[in-house]
Amino acid sequence: MEAPPIAAAVGTLRLATAGSVDDGKSTLVGRLLHDSKSVLTDQLDAVRAASAARGQDTPDLALLTDGLRAEREQGITIDVAYRYFATARRRFILADTPGHVQYTRNMVTGASTADLAVVLVDARKGVVEQTRRHAAIAALLRIPRVTLAVNKMDLVDYAEPVFAAIAEEFTAYATGLGVPEVTVIPLSALAGDNVVVRSALMDWYGGPTLVEHLETVPAGHDDGSPTGGRFPVQYVIRDGEARHYAGQVAAGALSVGDAVTVLPSGRTTTVEAIDALGTCTRTARTGQSVTLRLADELDVARGDLIAPVADAPTPVREIGATVCHLHERPLRAGDRVLVKHTTRTVRAVVQEIASRLGLDDLSHEPDPGELVANDIGGIVLRTAEPLALDPYEESRRTGSFLLIDPGDGTTLTACMASGAGEGGGPVRRPDGGW
Fold it and tell me: What pTM, to 2 d.p., does this model score?
């Protein structure tokens, strides 16, 4: 069947879903796929057969999303899976992230590129610790919009006071975290109320359905970012005497004739030519994979950053960052790590575990000694070589980096760089964070 036309002006929306165990997230994602006609007939037949084998009269839509055998057997989501679906107005890329606290770290991966996060709560339970954790991660990752889906309203008799209390509590909490836009929608993923079709059982609710909301919110996070052009060099191509530098524009734009600097060396030149898929172009923008040719012969290698002279970040060796620790092994002061920033990897040491975020009251515990798996906190690093980072609030791509175990290459911690203070050092906020 031919796909319905998509309104090009709206753009593709990247969203991530999160929720505690048994909040109905897999059912909601299954409902979105089913009601948007994004499920193949044989997939739906398999779900019907599996549901019947379990003694269920209706298809269990959660089976459309829980792909791993362990997920189906345990009834929980473990893996991050990307789902693609479309309505008549827009295309969507959905990162279906786990809800169990053990797999919270996976949400960081799935939500790191999202324009919007959908956080589910069970209307019977309200806002729980894992809900607050998901909201904190969304704020940490600077996701500009968070939508709270108050699910299972059918199990509380579609009561408006129950919804209103949850909406008030969550909105106050998310606003305190600095989330710029919060939307709350009452729904029942199992019955389909307010997912795609408006519910007649909640006539007291005058807002959009979930799909109506997703179809109309702006897409794209870095549009309008104050950060100038950023081009991490991925590969150096030699063509006779000429050198071309291949990579993807991480932020902003670069044009032929721009005066640029190569970091961390600080040498300057101009952009002589830009090639995109074999075609010469005047300008390369965020997300485009291109090759650059510079006017002067400079020593440029993988991991260097090309940026406008007028708006280049200052390379630093002392870095303050807000982090989410991902590994079972705790992170402690004195640990030696590798820092992976865009295409550059350097050695570093953890100088300080400055703070840990308390999810209940958003307090910052100073000097906690260590961060364990799923902890959110502030750290200070000292790198062996300077890194050209932007504050994460200005650029998600060039303001983020990973800590890696130098022994076995395991990813330890996801990090978001703070702004630089006088002398290029990290800035500590009054609350003890970064």
Answer: 0.77
